[in-house]
Specification:
The structure is a homodimer.
Chain A lengths: L3 H16 L15 H16 L3 E4 L5 E5 L6 E7 L12 H16 L7 E7 L12 H7 L17 H8 L16 E9 L4 H5 L3 E7 L1 E10 L3 E2 L11 H18 L6 E3 L3 E4 L5 E2 L2 E10 L2 H21 L3 E10 L2 E2 L2 H13 L6 E4 L5 H4 L5 E6 L15 H24 L5
Parallel strand pairs in A: 3-4, 3-5, 5-16, 6-15
Antiparallel strand pairs in A: 1-2, 2-4, 6-14, 6-16, 7-12, 7-13, 8-11, 9-12, 10-12
């Protein structure tokens, strides 16, 4: 039995090993089904076998390590081992490493659980290579869209072809799915990728949901004019109108703090775009997220009304077109409780927070209940080589994962669940 | 003696003739010292001679038509015959045509003036071809910067070379200047290029000044972050800060309405510019103008303070760098009175307004008092083939120009001015 500090040091060493598998010479880039992904998958499978797990690579390239494979009911613990371009070494990989270490500890401590555990190393969470994402977890959850296998990467290689080259089996994709009666739950440890835990001095946090999100293109049309000759009162300035709209967007999101609402205008362009011409047309994007769908939809409705009011008052027109939407994935109350209890046992605060970023849990929710544990992330920085989680925090995360598994075992026993 | 309507119809016909001299086949484009400028200058000189004026092209390519050339004291009336790319036919040209028609009327009516009149057709007001502007009026006003002759157009042709090709004489540039004791005043008729007169149902307006202007590049630096994981309260969003700054800019300009203040953010760019990333840096431009320098400078100082306050409150930084400034050119009170009296004689309102756009008067102010008369311009549209001024309005402008010249003659007589 290792202390949390020892577990954290072990996790750190494993993450350093894994970071060596990159498709480029500089930094860490490991796209789905790439040579680096193949080598990383083999390395992870090696760790799993050393931990006493029975391993296999499924049709979509997910490495599965099975503890107590003879048991029908399985607790699923996982995350992903693909990365963005020029990535950090924690995003995704920490959840896989934490799962392996947790199973090692459960076995080493002789903890009696009424279910087996599968540690899962997904390959397609970042969605960088193909114009789709979460296919590896979707296949496992039984919600893969078959036509996704025909999408192609920038070099024209289809996902189907890439799977064959990787050693996967696209024809067997349907067989990758778990039965609904097999899964106990899906648990994932992940770095927060945001600054909340750090700001509050907490090593870990319990995820309440994976935020749903909606994205819009907003176009404001006014009238161009000479910057010197059109009085302020006679202007129909598309950019001044957009500025007022951006502050309304910020205001609506701020007032949705109770729902962890965030709204971002990330892109903006003004035409004609000359220093001495009043902008005639401005296009900007809106990305809005919250911890549940209802408050997000209510905020969008409020924004539509406020933008229209601003446009009318300034005699400009505004068009708001949705180009992306993904629903909120709630984290099951019983899994939040299991994590919270484990944090309590460790003497830690039990901060609950939504995940603003997407995760494999979004697909796994189609199969079973999802629970997530966030690990403090320095400066909130992610998708960047500067990404960092502390050794102590990672060790506590492994310990909390063990604690949550034990809590689920107790719940299963009290509810008469049989494996 | 023609009625205002007849004068307007005559002006309209002359402007239509002049619009045929273009450097392209489509629309009207006539850059300084181009072949079309040469042909237009010859055509204008022909009109001047037909009106009884003695003509010459000066070293910088300005066509000068002299009425009563033997008189030392000269009233200067002019505007420009160069255009922007894909221009309208009124901007500049109307002032030259109005000058010729006014002198014809003064002669036809046998009006006794104590000074001669020079009608001037400048060639470099738009500043499109060379990286300088107003060189033709500056030479005449004695404030030409000699090094401007060495600037080059996009093809690498120097202004000096282009002048020689045109038939000008760059070596004689210094001799183009009037003596200070020669000029009575400089008068210019020009389309408003803005919507004020139209909005108030007035055909003509008296210009109070040519607005000074200052231009800035403003850079706001915050911190990039994940659009889903950074709570609103922890953001340092450079674009949200910029939106608040843009509204402050608008507010300051609106409150400066008494000084005809206008402020425009015409260009904006946000980095990194991704739909799901909080903007780290935003750059935008500010163009601010007013009818006098003091209120413009006060507004800039206020804006600097307000932008700093906004930046501080949002934990971002803001940099405001001036890259252009031109001082206000006041129109002489006596010339405003002369135009206003002429408008009164015509039974017209005497609206006074600053010119937000730049004009040759800006250079001519170095030589003598400047007076300008604005003509209503449909929709405020200029620098566009849709530019339009009504026949009746143009006829009234010629009549007002005659009236102002007569008023100046009376002033000169009462003050004992001798020609």
């Amino acid at each position: 039995m290792r202390t949390p500090k020892q577990l954290g040091a072990h996790a750190e060493a494993m993450l350093a090993e894994l970071a060596a598998f990159s498709d480029g010479d500089n930094g860490l880039t490991r796209l789905y089904l790439s040579p680096a992904h193949r080598r990383a998958a083999d390395h992870v499978a090696g760790w799993m076998r050393a931990a006493g797990l029975e391993t296999a690579v499924d049709p979509l390239g997910t490495v599965r390590g099975r503890w107590k494979p003879e048991r029908k009911r399985r607790l699923l613990i996982g995350s992903h081992i693909d990365t963005v371009v020029d990535a950090g070494r924690y995003d995704g990989m920490l959840g896989v490493v934490a799962g392996i270490l947790a199973v090692e500890e459960i076995a080493a401590r002789g903890l009696a659980l009424p279910f087996g555990i599968d540690v899962l190393a997904f390959g397609d969470e970042e969605g960088v290579r193909f114009p789709t994402t979460l296919v590896s977890s979707a296949a496992l959850a039984g919600c893969l869209v078959p036509s996704d296998l025909d999408t192609r990467d920038a070099e024209g290689v289809s996902l189907r072809e890439a799977l064959v080259a990787f050693g996967g089996d696209p024809e067997a994709a349907a067989s990758a799915a778990y039965g609904r009666d097999e899964a106990v739950a899906y648990l994932e440890v992940h770095i927060e990728q945001g600054p909340v835990l750090e700001a509050e001095g907490l090593p870990l946090g319990v995820v309440t949901s994976i935020a749903g999100q909606s994205r819009f293109n907003i176009t404001v049309t006014g009238e161009a004019g000479h910057a010197g000759t059109v009085p302020m009162a006679l202007r129909r300035d598309a950019l001044a109108a957009s500025a007022e709209m951006m502050l309304a967007i910020e205001d609506v999101a701020r007032r949705g703090a109770a729902h962890q609402m965030v709204a971002t205008v990330g892109r903006i362009a003004a035409r004609p775009g000359a220093v001495n011409v009043i902008p005639a047309e401005v296009a900007f994007t809106l990305d809005i997220r919250a911890d549940a769908d209802a408050p997000r939809h209510a905020a969008i409705a409020e924004l539509e009304a406020r933008l229209l009011t601003i446009a009318t008052g300034r005699k400009v027109s505004a068009r708001m077109e949705k180009f992306f939407e993904s629903p909120t994935t709630p984290c099951a109350a019983r899994l939040q409780e299991a994590f919270a209890a484990a944090l309590g046992d460790l003497g830690l605060g039990q901060r609950r927070l939504a995940s603003g970023a997407g995760h494999d849990g979004h697909a796994m929710h189609h199969l079973t209940d999802v629970g997530m544990l966030f690990v403090r992330c320095r400066g909130g920085i992610s998708h960047n080589p500067a990404e960092f989680a502390a050794v102590d925090d990672m060790g506590l995360a492994v310990e909390a994962l063990v604690g949550a598994a034990v809590r689920l075992a107790a719940d299963a026993a009290s509810s008469g669940d049989r494996t």
